[in-house]
Amino acid sequence: MRPRLSSDSRRSAHRRRGGESESESAKGLFTRGFNSHLSARARSQYTGGVTTSEAKNVAGDAKNSPALQTLARVGFAVLGLLHLLIGAIAINIAVGSGGGKADQSGALGQLASNPAGSVILWVIVAGLFALGVWMLLSALLMPGSDPKRKWMNRISDVSKAIVYFAIGGTALTFALGGSADSSSSSSSASAQLLAAPGGVVLLTLVGAIVVVIGGYFIYKGASRAFTEELTVPAGKAGRATIAVGMTGYIAKGVSLMVVGILIIGAAITADPTKSSGLDGALKALAGLPFGVVILLAVGAGLIAYGAYCFVRARRARL
């Protein structure tokens, strides 16, 4: 028969078991915390010692740096210059004075033939590449609590960055003494896409996307949504800013919609030469009934968009 323990003995044994339990619990907590620390440290070493928050801090510092912001504003200004030139070329085409290619390559070609063209082209390259980098950083650091809206804004900023890099690359070609033809590049890209499996569907989809983007530009101009991108000045300057912004966005939207329609036409007819970019779109407008009037209006609108870009270079919310 087992001896019966006294009440004091039982209390002492209970305390020993409780102490052992607490010790084991503390030991478990320490072990889990230590392992968690090791895991975090291992993840940090695996990613080069930089955490996500640290990477975002670095990106935020770069985005807010005075040097990058100044170059990004230069990027908006050179976009304005290019649109002024494209609008002027479109007007020359409308009145029958020739004018060359009414697109980015035509505008850059005109600058390259200028005595100071080389310097201007290098400024365009620096400004557009900086603006592209700034857009990518904006996409990475996109604020907001709605995940769907954040990703839509991210896609928009990344798309803009790609466009700026592409135009900057064309400007770099001219700055290095070469040449480029946006219309031929567009036709060549359409031909390659048509030759791919399902190319007709893919090219039609591309055209539809461009049409939608053009529609968005029209909406953005008509609704004055572009005013969220900059600090609108007060008084007459503010009214003038809104006027050129509305006119410019609508005109650019019309031209993009025509570009998209031409791409869809190239897909349906399997004729890539019909996808001739902005130059082909503006010249197609001239062939419509009252086309000269329409092209004059679009040309003036592109000039207005260029003026808006200069205002944005000064007053953009970066």
Descriptors:
mainly alpha, 0% strand, 11 helices, 318 residues, globular, single chain
Structure description:
The protein has 11 helices and no strands. With 318 residues, the chain is mainly alpha-helical. The protein has one domain (62-315). Helix 3 packs across helix 5 (117-140), helix 7 (182-195) crosses helix 10 (277-286) and helix 9 (235-269) crosses helix 10 (277-286). The protein is globular, with a radius of gyration of 30 Å. 34% of the residues are buried.
Helix and strand layout, with pairings?
Elements: H1 7-46, H2 52-63, H3 66-94, H4 104-112, H5 117-140, H6 147-175, H7 182-195, H8 199-222, H9 235-269, H10 277-286, H11 291-315
Helix pairs in contact: 2-5, 3-4, 3-5, 3-11, 4-5, 4-6, 5-6, 7-8, 7-10, 8-9, 9-10, 9-11, 10-11
